[in-house]
Design a protein that fits this description.
This protein has 197 residues and is mainly alpha-helical. Among the domains are: 75 residues, Arc Repressor Mutant, subunit A (Orthogonal Bundle), CATH 1.10.10.10; 54 residues, no CATH class. The protein is built from nine helices and five strands; from the N terminus they run ααααββαααβββαα. The strands form two sheets. The protein has a three-stranded antiparallel beta sheet. A two-stranded antiparallel ribbon has the order 1-2. α2 crosses α4 and α3 crosses α4.
Length: 197
C-alpha cells in the first residue's frame, strides 16, 4: 500500500491555510474564491484574463466565476474592458484597490511565521519539513494537531502492546496508525509540563 503520509500532511496544511483565509476574507465581505480570482488575475497575461480562462484555471463553473466577478466589480477590485479586436471578448484587470488588497492579504501571516521558524532547521525528508510546518501552523492557529496516535506524547508502547496514557485504554496496532483529535506532540507536552511546574 502506498504511503499517504506526505499527501495527508499537505492536505492538513492546506485546510489550516484555507481556514485562516476564510477568517480574513470574511472580515471584508469576501469568500476565498474571490481572492483566488484576484490572485489569478494578478499573475495571468493579456491572453488569459478572460472570465472563461479564470474558470478554467480555478476548475470552477462559468456561473460561479461570473458571480464572483460581479462581487469583485461591485467592490471595485476588478475592472472589465472589451477586447479591441473582438467586442464579444471581455478582459479583466485588477483595479488599484484590488492590487492593494492582494498586497495586504498575501502571503498569509501564519504561513510566513511558520516559514521563519523552520527556515534555519535542516530536514532530511520532505515529510519532516511538512510536519514542522504543520506544527507551527497549528500553534499559530490554535488548532488541534489531529496527529497519528503513535506520534503522540500520550502514546505508550511496551513489548508490542500499546496504551493511551490520556484515556488509560489499550490501543490496537490499527489504532496506533490512525489520527486522533486528542493528539499532543511530544514537544508540546514538554512545554506544558514546564509551564505548570
Amino acid at each position: 500500500m502506498q504511503d499517504t503520509t506526505t499527501f495527508r500532511l499537505i492536505e492538513r496544511i492546506s485546510n489550516l491555510l484555507r481556514s485562516e483565509e476564510r477568517k480574513k476574507f470574511a472580515a471584508i465581505g469576501l469568500q476565498p474564491v474571490h481572492v483566488q480570482v484576484l490572485d489569478y488575475l494578478s499573475t495571468c497575461n493579456r491572453f488569459s484574463d478572460t472570465p472563461a480562462a479564470v474558470a478554467e484555471y480555478l476548475c470552477l463553473t462559468k456561473g460561479t466565476i461570473s458571480q464572483s466577478i460581479q462581487v469583485l466589480e461591485r467592490k471595485n477590485y476588478v475592472e472589465k474592458s472589451q477586447d479591441h479586436q473582438d467586442g464579444r471578448v471581455v478582459h479583466l484587470e485588477l483595479s488599484v484597490k484590488g492590487k492593494q488588497l492582494l498586497d495586504e492579504m498575501k502571503p498569509l501571516d501564519i504561513f510566513a511565521k511558520a516559514q521563519q521558524v523552520i527556515s534555519t532547521q535542516g530536514f532530511s525528508t520532505l515529510e519532516a519539513a511538512l510536519n514542522s510546518i504543520l506544527s507551527e501552523l497549528q500553534k499559530a492557529n490554535n488548532a488541534k494537531s489531529f496527529g497519528v496516535c503513535q506520534s503522540c506524547a500520550n502514546f505508550i508502547a511496551v513489548e508490542n502492546h500499546y496504551l493511551c496514557n490520556l484515556t488509560q485504554l489499550p490501543l490496537s496496532q490499527a489504532d496506533a496508525k490512525k489520527i486522533c483529535r486528542e493528539h499532543i506532540l511530544a514537544e508540546d507536552r514538554e512545554h506544558l509540563t514546564k509551564m505548570t511546574s
